Amino acid sequence: MQSLALTLFVLTAPRLLLGQDAAGTQLWRLAGGTVPVPLALATGVAGLWNPAQPESLSVAALELIQTPATIGAAGFLGGVRVRVARVGRFGVAYGRIAMRDLVRTSLSPDPDGAPVQYYTHTARVHWSRGFGRATVGAALAFNETRLDVSNRSRMSFDVGARYQVGSRLLLAAATHFFSRIAASPDQDVFGAAELRLWRGGLWTGSGPATVRIRYGISAANGLGTDHHVGAGIDIGGVLAADVEVVREAGYAAAAWRPVAGIQFRVGRYRIVFAGDTGPRQIGAAYRVGLEARLR
After folding, report:
1. CATH number for 62
2. Total number of domains constituting the chain
3. Residue range 204-209: average pLDDT?
4. pLDDT tens digits for 41-59?
5. Cβ atoms 137, 173 nearer than 8 A
6. pTM score
7. How far is CA 126 from the centre of its chain?
8. I want to staple 189 with a disulfide (CB 3.0 to 4.6 A). Which of 30, 143, 152, 220 is the partner?
């Protein structure tokens, strides 16, 4: 991933519009770095990583993302999804992530003029529906990136699918910010498989616990293929913990990065905490989320 390296690159060439699109997508990759499962399997009201979301009631959610001070990016993602009988689930979402404290300099290291603005935001509508063992989804999004004095906007159309093979294996795939049939750093393709290893009670009254292992990839972006390997446990639908290691191909030598998360339910609310060590161990990034089931 090497987010810091890409940031330095795009700041030295703000007039490269394709690079600017990639810079916007890269900020969302920072947010994706805090997801402790392969991105094709990620769930959430916004359907940002895969629009094919599991069956659910009507829900609203908000997530906050904070990266280390070395990178200086922060953002949020929120949305609402409602269930329409026989049609599927429809949702709207909005997210914004920005990098702060970027200053321009001239012949000295002291700031010269106004700070450099670097942010991206997305507004999207999405739909998903189950068909037997399969769930399919689609999302249409407006994306805009501001890099210094340049502004770039584009539309993207994503599709995703999940398929349950027997009672133990789940397969998933999705596109991300897809707008052209070509390998490009401003878009990704995700794929993943999840295998249920064990199901049973941990202690009397614990409710059924499920242990799963997962493998996924992020590819087709012209930057190399990232590999995700992880596992998770769910206890009675009340408490869940996930952990994975990610091998990032990035822009230079490949590196491994751990990610972990925990979530628990309290009544009709689901609370999520997750984080990673950051690219090249330069500091941890965090994500906090709250999801509410609507009546």
Report:
1. 2.40.160.40
2. 1
3. 82
4. 999 888 999 999 988 789 9
5. no
6. 0.88
7. 15
8. 220
